[in-house]
C-alpha cells in the first residue's frame, strides 16, 4: 500500500511539473498569451488545481495553483439552482480545498473540470484566433481541421461557456461515436487544448498553429506603407488629453499596414474579451496633432468613459494607463487585435463582438478583477 501511494504521489508531482512547464513555455510567448490571459490546470485524485485569475502563465508556479473538488464543480455545471452572486465564484467557494490564501481561481474552472484529460491549457493565440474570429469560423474550422477539433460559438464566459462546451462535446460524441477531440475552438475567444502529458498538449498546439498559418499564408499579407511621421508627438498629445501618467505607443509594420479605418479593431469593435479588458472596446481615432483634444472629449461624451487606446490610422497606436505596465499591456493587446483582424480578413472576413457581448465583459466584475491583478494594482 505504501509503495502504491508513493507511486501515485510521484505521478501527481510529475503531472504538476509538466503543467508548469507547458504554462511557462506558451505563456512566455506573446503570440499565445498576454498579461493575465489564458489559464491552465491539472487534475488527479478528484481535485482540479488551476491557475489563479489575473496571474500570468509565464510566471505560474505550482504553489500558485488553487485546488478545487471536481465533483462539486461538475454538479454546479448541471445545476439549475439559483445562487447568490456570481455562480462561478459560488461554485469555487463550494469546491475549494483548504484556504485559498487570497487567490481567486480562474473564471473558467467549470470547463477545466469537465474535460477528462489530466492537463488542460487555455490560450489566446494570434494565429488560432484568426480562425476563431472569422465570420464563418465553424465552417472554416471543419474544412481545415475536420474531426480534430470542436467549434463553440461565442458564449459569455463562466457558466454559459462551460455549458456550451459540454453541449458541443456531447453533440460530437453522438454524431461520430468517438470521444470529443482534445482541441476546442471558442469563437471570438481562444482555444483549449488538453492531453495526459506535456508532449501531447504541445504537439497539438503546434499542429493547430501550423495548419491555420498555412491557410492564412495562401493570401498575401498587406503591403507595409513607407514610414511617415513616427507619431511620437500625436501619442504624447493623447496622453496629455487623457490626463494619464503613462503611455506606450508603436508605429511598427503591423500598425502601418493593419490600422486603417476599415480594420475591424479600429472601427467595428473588439475581437476577443481580452481586448475589452485591457485596451477598451473601441479606440479613439486621431486625425492629426490638432485633433487630439477634441477627439478625446468627443469620445468621452459618446462612450461615457475615457479612451485607453488611440489610433492615428496607418501612423501610430498609443495606449495610456496609470502605470507603464498597464499602458504596455493595453498597447500589446490592441496590436494583437490588429494582427488577428488582419489575418481573419485574409481567411475571408472577421467577426467582432456585438453590443450585448461587449457589455457583458465591460460590466463583469470577474474581468475587472483580472485586469487589476494583471496591472499589479
From TrEMBL:
Which regions span the lipid bilayer?
none
SUPFAM superfamilies with a match to the protein in the record: AraD/HMP-PK domain-like (SSF53639)
Q: Which residues form the Class II aldolase/adducin N-terminal domain?
A: 18-216
Q: What is this protein called?
A: Class II aldolase/adducin N-terminal domain-containing protein
A UniProt-annotated Pfam family: Aldolase_II
Q: Where is the signal peptide?
A: none
The organism named in the record is Tessaracoccus flavescens
